[in-house]
Amino acid sequence: MKKFLKNNAVQALIASLICIVLGLLIGYVVLLFINPAGAGEAILAVIKNFWNYSRANLQIKNFGNTLVKTAPLLMCALSVLFAYKVGLFNIGAAGQYVVGTCASLYAALAWGWGWLPCLLFAIVCGGVYGAIVGLLKAYCNVNEVISGIMLNWIGLYTTNMLLAKVKESTSPYTLHLKTAAPQAILPTLGLEKLFNGNTNVTIAVPLAILIAVAILILLDKTRLGYELKATGNNKNAAKYAGMAERRNIILTLVIAGALAALGGSFLYLTDFEQWSVTQSAVPGMGFNGIAAAFLGGLNPIGTIFASYFIQHITVGGAYVDKTMYSSQISDLISSLIVYLCGFVLFIKYAMNQGLAKSEDKQKQKAAALAAQSGKGGEK
Length: 379
Prior knowledge:
This protein is mainly α. The chain contains 16 helices and no strands.
């Protein structure tokens, strides 16, 4: 049993489940304080999400909507995870996500590009934006957290300025792709048939999963992945071993930036949402990616399920009865669970400490028994 509990994947799963249960319990307690009459129904509404609909066709269609929002969240989570594996904290994923959104929408609406060039342009722009953080880190020793946060806001206001040129005349939202640039909408490849005609479910969903698998292979099965992780663990040792530590830092943040930017294009090239050029806050998708990465145990496969779960409860919060609770209550419950996701590594550490103490006690008992049996033999 102890050997089973020592498995890293098992520990990550147990820690994630503990965080989820604690988040739901605390959310339920908050609901009890606000209005105990509807607390049980409200927390169930969050958990059920699309199952709140009674008809199967509506359940399937709204399940598709949750998947549409999961794909960009997964890309942001992979961006954070990839950098973290190399010893860097890419808090700039939020800004890179915004840059990818800007690049893909502007290329589609202003230049009339198709969906594939738009995706590639988003990847390039996100990679360049990540490279700025990497260059500052590698050559000026500027902490990536500081430069990443500053670039988040630069990216947001630059995006608002550029996309203001392709917005609707009577609203702050960008033009609809379906009418202004249908060639830029991601293809569905027949996936809409599986989700009751939901055309927002595109190749972004399977592509995001494939990219997660590719990141796993890159990090664990390739020489490049080994060098990147070695650089993150000890930059000086990597340099002594002949590795290009500066190049590896820059390359890591280029890849991380490209992943987050691809997430932005995965959402907005479905025409599921429009960008508001009056937006004054950086979208939470990039920051939620941090929680998804840690909830998934910093494993690309685990991050797939963690990203879906976080998006599931986020969307599920919209089904809470607004006559009994304010509209912000759904965000509160979601944020509680997201916040507790940050304790996954702490719970894994506590589990390892507990197992180590248990092993020490067993060794001490075994030594004591051996000593007693030795004394009995002497007599």
